[in-house]
């Protein structure tokens, strides 16, 4: 199932157009990089692809059909700051279940420890918390993952462990990944191709 963005245009309110006429496609299993200077609208485009925001022009389709408005979203996004992406009052076990039934093999590969499931977000480090956000985004219904600076704030070892787990699963499930990063080395290592906004 191919993900297509056709002729996408977006602006916030009455501010100038951030972008117009964006066209690109991603195949299942493909790892694509998205780069561009700060403020060009990478995160905004990601939010449109993941269905958080509607484009003002053009459309996003998955397998030729419009993205679903209800139910589990097949395009999932992980943000740079995990603390903004979780409910501070929910134990991690509950947060994890938002993505569907967690895959034990994935949790192990991400280095998530069983006892962390009983903790609240503020009882985990940033890196530990981000592992949960990644696991939650990789529910069984995910066809494409959008990683927006997903490992930017993590140390090299944690970064490598998370990417290793994600790429393993992507290959197994033929899931596509869009990687947004300012780290050119990381992009070259991970991506089949890189597009610039
Ligand atoms: N909700 C919003 N309302 C108004 N303007 C916004 C909103 N969100 C983002 N912007 C503006 O839109 C522009 C693009 O922001 P966006 O976060 O998409 O860029 P980016 O390319 O991802 O940047 P960075 O590389 O710094 O993360 C910025 O100028 C930002 O201030």
Describe the protein's topology:
Blueprint: E1 3-10, E2 19-26, E3 31-35, H1 42-49, E4 57-62, E5 65-66, E6 75-78, H2 92-97, H3 104-109, H4 126-137, E7 144-148, H5 156-173, E8 176-180, H6 184-190, E9 193-196
Parallel strand pairs: 3-8, 3-9, 6-7, 7-8
Antiparallel strand pairs: 1-2, 1-4, 4-5
This protein binds adenosine-5'-triphosphate.
Adenosine-5'-triphosphate is lined by residues 12, 18, 36, 38-44.
What does this entry look like structurally?
With 197 residues, the chain is α/β, with parallel strands linked by helices. The protein has a single domain, classed as P-loop containing nucleotide triphosphate hydrolases (Rossmann fold). It is 29% helix and 24% strand. It contains 6 helices and 9 strands. It has helices at residues 42-49, 92-97, 104-109, 126-137, 156-173, 184-190; strands at 3-10, 19-26, 31-35, 57-62, 65-66, 75-78, 144-148, 176-180, 193-196. It has a 5-stranded parallel β-sheet with strand order 6-7-8-3-9, sandwiched between helices. A hairpin with a 2-residue loop joins strand 4 and strand 5 (65-66). It is globular. The model has no long low-confidence stretch (mean pLDDT 95). The structure holds adenosine-5'-triphosphate. Adenosine-5'-triphosphate is lined by residues 12, 18, 36, 38-44. Adenosine-5'-triphosphate (ATP) binds at residues 12, 18, 36, 38-44. Keywords: ATP-binding, Nucleotide-binding, Transport. InterPro entries: AAA+_ATPase, ABC_transp_ATP-bind, ABC_transporter-like_ATP-bd, ABC_transporter-like_CS, P-loop_NTPase. One of its GO terms (molecular function) is ATP binding. This is Peptide ABC transporter. Residues 3-197 form the ABC transporter domain.
